[in-house]
C-alpha cells in the first residue's frame, strides 16, 4: 500500500508559534479595551460638560427673569398706596420662618447679603454653604380662579393696592374701587448656594437653593439645581457696582451683575482644573478634578 508523502509532511503549530499568536491576541485585546475605555472617558466628559451648559443656561435664565420682574406690583408704582388686611411690612434685613412678614416687605424689591446668611433665619446654617444671598420681590402675573385661603395676594390698580390672604379677599378693606384692576400672588425669593443631600464618590454635591413663600405665606426652602458651587452678586448704584454690604440705599439700585460657578457632580479621573475663576471680587483656583463653567450676566430692573 502506498502513502501520499504530502500528508506525512503536514504538522500543527509549534509551541513558539502558539505563544506568539497568544501574545499578539492579548495585545489586540488590550488595545481594544483601551479604545473602549478612552471612548467611555470622552463620553463621560462630554456628558458632564453638556449638563453644566444646560444647568447654567437654566439658572441664568431663571435669575434674569426674576430680576427683571423685581418691583412689579401689578401696575401700581406707588408703594405708599398699598394697604389691606395683610398690610405691607416695614423693610428689614431679616427673614423669619413661620411668619408672613418677609413676604409682605414689598417696598424692598431687591436686597442682598454679602457672603453670609446672617440675619436670614429662614436659611439655616446647615443649608447655607457659601456665597451671597439675593432676595427679589414682585407680584406674579394676573391670577384667575379660586383663592387659596392662606396665600398672600395683591389686588392692584394704577392708584391703589391691597394685600390680603385669600380667605379675606371679600373684606371691605381689601376692595379696590379703581378700574382697571387685577389680582396677583405675592412672590418673594431668596437665592443661595447650599448643601444638597447627595454625594459622588464621597464628595458632597452643592446646589442652588431658594427660599419662597409656601401656601401660608411663610418662607420655605427648595432645592433648584445641583452643581452650583458659588454665587456672587454686585449691585449697580451711583454709577458703580458694589457688594451688598456697600450699598447705601437699596431704593437707588438700578441693576445687578451676578456670577454663577457650576461644577460637575462627580470628579473626572485623570483631570485637573488649573484655571482661576473671577467672580466679582472673589478669585478662586480650585486645582481639583471637577469640570467647571463660569456664567455671568448683568440685568437692569425696575426699582
Q: Averaged pLDDT, please? A: 88
Structural category is alpha+beta
Sheet with the most strands, sense and barrel status: 8 strands, mixed
Stretches with pLDDT under 50, minimum 5 residues: none
Strand content: 25-35%
Sequence of secondary-structure elements: HHEEEEEEEEEEEEEE
> How many strands?
14
- N- and C-termini, Cα separation: 114 Å
> What percent of the residues sit in helical stretches (DSSP H or I)?
10-25%
Number of helices: 2
Instruction: Tell me the domain tally.
Output: 1
Please supply descriptive tags for the structure shown above.
alpha+beta, 8-stranded mixed β-sheet, 4-stranded antiparallel β-sheet, 2 helices, 14 strands
Q: What's the quick description here?
A:
It contains 2 helices and 14 strands. It has helices at 5-8, 15-69; strands spanning 82-83, 110-113, 128-142, 152-156, 161-165, 182-200, 203-213, 219-226, 228-237, 240-242, 255-263, 277-279, 282-284, 292-300.
